[in-house]
């Protein structure tokens, strides 16, 4: 595996992890809003 491919792979992994994390945060915050609408 050459350097360019490795960087691309690492970048893709980081991006997908970030997207999953953001989606998880959005889902949990939406769940909190449903359970407790008074909280900001």
TrEMBL record:
UniProt keyword Transmembrane helix present: yes
Transmembrane regions: 7-27
Keywords: Membrane, Transmembrane, Transmembrane helix
Protein name: Lipoprotein
């Amino acid at each position: 595996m050459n350097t360019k491919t490795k960087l691309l792979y690492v970048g893709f992994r980081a991006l997908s992890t970030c997207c999953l994390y953001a989606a998880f945060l959005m889902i949990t915050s939406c769940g909190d809003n449903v359970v407790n609408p008074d909280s900001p």
